[in-house]
Amino acid sequence: MTFEVRAPEQEELAAFFSVNSIAFGRQLNPERVEGGMRFAERERLLGAFDDGRCIGSAGAFRFDLSVPGGSLSCAGVTWVGVLPTDRRRGVLTALMTEQLRRVRAWGEPIAALWASEAPIYGRFGYGLATEHFDEVRLARVHGRLRGHPAARGKPRLVTREEALAAWPAVWEAVRGQRAGLHTRSAAWWEERGVPAQEREEPGWSKDFFVSLEADGATIGYARYRVRGEWEHGLPAGEVAVHELLGIDGGAEAALWEYILGVDLVDRVTAYRRPLDETLLHLLEDPRRAVRRPSDALFCRVLDPAAALEGRRYAGEGRLVLEVADDFGGYAAGRFALEAGPGGARCRATGGSGRPRAGRGRAGQPALRAGERARALAGRAHRGQRGGGAGGRCALPLAAGAVGAGGLVGPG
Description:
Number of strands: 20
Largest sheet: 7 strands, mixed
Oligomer: single chain
Helix content: 10-25%
Strand content: 25-35%
Distance between the termini: 23 Å
CATH superfamily of the largest domain: Gcn5-related N-acetyltransferase (GNAT)
């Protein structure tokens, strides 16, 4: 290895972000650099430098990530890329090695990311934690709803400033109910949650912001755009829903009723929706909603004891797990977990390790729910070990765990 891995200096940030832009097939946008640094920390960035030239990049936001019944400190991995001229030199491996070392030193028990390509990160210990619908498409003519007995609230179009003031409380309320959502700083809301738009994209409106209000409080919100189009004198536009959240099913039902009532469009597309999407249970004919399921959040456990203690469990019990970690060894060991609805205690132990969590399933018997958990526990009890290059130490969360908004962009 003839390059060094270190945090970029202030004057090297443009080169750092340029690497990531080129790796994703984009030209460097100075506004993106400025915006990104508003909620990033330079000391949590890593660059690979060859004779002063930046050839690789990686970053890690500082977040708390919701897990069932709790929240964990998490490194939100992003801006991962290598110049196409410098591939096959071990640059990515060097970046991941140093990043995981630092995350563990920061005392963050897990790292998480959205993968640009699913196979990339398994060799570094990441495994699939949540899934979602990448998009849900519905022809408006098929948008008849059965109604929801608890539907409530009045939608109101609001300004960006009003959205920035009211929406974070809704996000936090939903985060407490759904695993796989991260905390959002004020800067994050301004840059990504409710971004400013200086100009419209060709064919599309700027964002519309809708707050759902009841009894003087905001109980849900939606951010969407409209594409105006006409065919043979008939409206053929589209509504693109980029985020829609309610504090409960009744609030989301009211928001979907609003969205499906937008005039002069013939279809609705919603992005990054959870597997337990409320809309599917409201439609008279849910089969008409075209869904594209996809992997979502990938997680890497660095401290199994803290990760297992940080969530809650439906029943009382004790479990001893043996965890294999072939990349760095951070999660390797045998752990005794005593858990229940009121909390959990997990400690390293020298006792007999059964069941044994294999490479591709570390932690899953304790963290999955329902039939999948029982099936995984059964496999672990029989001593089977998952395959795959490297060793994945994933933090599986809950079925349908990722909601709109997700974590960070593809790494």
